[in-house]
Amino acid sequence: MLTRKTVNTIFLLGLAVFVSLSFFKPISWPAFALLMASWFLLTLGGSFFIRWNYHMTSLNSNNEINKPQVAITFDDGPHPEYTPKALSLLEKYNAKATFFCIGKNIEKHPELFKEIIRQGHSVGNHTFSHANTFGFFGTEKVMEELTLTNKLVEGISGLKMALYRPAFGVTNPSIARAVKKLGLKTIGWNVRSLDTTFRNEDQVLKRITSRTQNGAIILLHDTSAKSIAVLERLLVFLEERKLQSVTVDQMFQIRAYE
């Protein structure tokens, strides 16, 4: 994948070539516009598609794994109605998952958050506010959000979280700097369920199962009845395929906590 540094270098070289050539022969404005548009579209795509590893490196799947394992992950909880249902299903099928929780939801439901940990699942930082404008926050504001959530979790559980998942999967230079300064490891995905969209249960399940293989990281949300219904059918699918759902840190052999 093209990184931001590589794309910026190519763009600047192209711009330098255009400027140099313009001294000998006029360069049409559409050529400059095309160069600028290409840079903008690549940067925009790199900000919204975490698998590109454009602004920062994320663990999106484990292609080198030699075990029949996948990692189910949940974003946006804990939710008082649906997280307990997810935990019940995971326990029924002897599956483990990673919950990337929003700080303000942890603050509202600390006992439920502790129950996630008690049942042997891993937890990670999914920002404090999950604000729609998070992608526009500066480095200091991003650090403030992540630090607030980590301190909250440490106070509740004694654990110092080391895993981070960007809100909406959005990355940019400010977020990259904040994550680096805090020493967090970013976790992405390679199977996006789109369970929060208009797609129905069958469509979401088909999307997941058609993309799931050893080493996959599956993105779900523990925030709706549809997602819980999909989870149950997914767990049956994994059981039939003899694929085990494990925590992200187990699949990558990394530390979930400092």
UniProtKB/TrEMBL annotation:
Residues 68-246 form the NodB homology domain. The chain crosses the membrane at residues 7-24, 30-50. Gene3D superfamilies: Glycoside hydrolase/deacetylase (3.20.20.370). GO terms for molecular function: hydrolase activity, acting on carbon-nitrogen (but not peptide) bonds. The keyword Secreted does not apply. One of its GO terms (biological process) is carbohydrate metabolic process. Signal peptide: none annotated. The keyword Cell inner membrane does not apply. Pfam families: Polysacc_deac_1 (PF01522). It comes from the Bacteria. Keywords: Hydrolase, Membrane, Transmembrane, Transmembrane helix. Its EC number is 3.-.-.-. This is Polysaccharide deacetylase family protein. It comes from Maribacter flavus.
